[in-house]
Amino acid sequence: MSSPPPESVAMDRRQLRRLGKALSRAVRGTVGTDAATLAVYATDSSNYRQVPLAVVFPRDARDVLETLRVCREFDVPVLGRGAGTSLAGQGCNTAVVVDMSRYMNAILEIDPERRIARVEPGVVLDDLRAAAAVHGLTVGPDPATHA
C-alpha cells in the first residue's frame, strides 16, 4: 500500500497534536513536534521545503515498528531520513520523518573474513570506514557527503 501524495495530507492542529501524542506514547525514543524541530527537518540540501508532521528519533527497531503502526492508524505517510544531504528533495516531505542517526547508529559487527559489516541505519560512513580500516578494509561507494 502506497502513501498518499504529500498534498493530500491535510491535518488540523488538533489532529497534529493527537498524532504527536500517539507517537510519544508509542516510542521510547524522542518525538519532535515543536516548531524548531519541524523547521530543521523541512529542508535538506535541495531547494525544496516541506514541513513534516512530526519527527521521530527511534531508539531501536521496536520504535520504528511502533512509529509505522501509529502512522498507519492516522493514515499519514512516513519518510526515512539520513543526514539530509539529498539534492533532489528526498529528505523532506509532509510526512512523519524518521531519523535514525540520533540513537540507531551503532556498528554491530565487522567480519573481516567475510568482508561484511552489520550496522544500524543511522551509522555515519566515516565511522564505519574507520572501524573497517582496523581490518585493512574500506567501504564504497565514496559520496561527497560521507561525513
From TrEMBL:
<protein>
    <submittedName>
        <fullName>FAD-binding oxidoreductase</fullName>
    </submittedName>
</protein>
<dbReference type="InterPro" id="IPR006094">
    <property type="entry name" value="Oxid_FAD_bind_N"/>
</dbReference>
<dbReference type="InterPro" id="IPR016169">
    <property type="entry name" value="FAD-bd_PCMH_sub2"/>
</dbReference>
<dbReference type="InterPro" id="IPR036318">
    <property type="entry name" value="FAD-bd_PCMH-like_sf"/>
</dbReference>
<feature type="domain" description="FAD-binding PCMH-type">
    <location>
        <begin position="48"/>
        <end position="147"/>
    </location>
</feature>
<dbReference type="InterPro" id="IPR016166">
    <property type="entry name" value="FAD-bd_PCMH"/>
</dbReference>
<dbReference type="Pfam" id="PF01565">
    <property type="entry name" value="FAD_binding_4"/>
</dbReference>
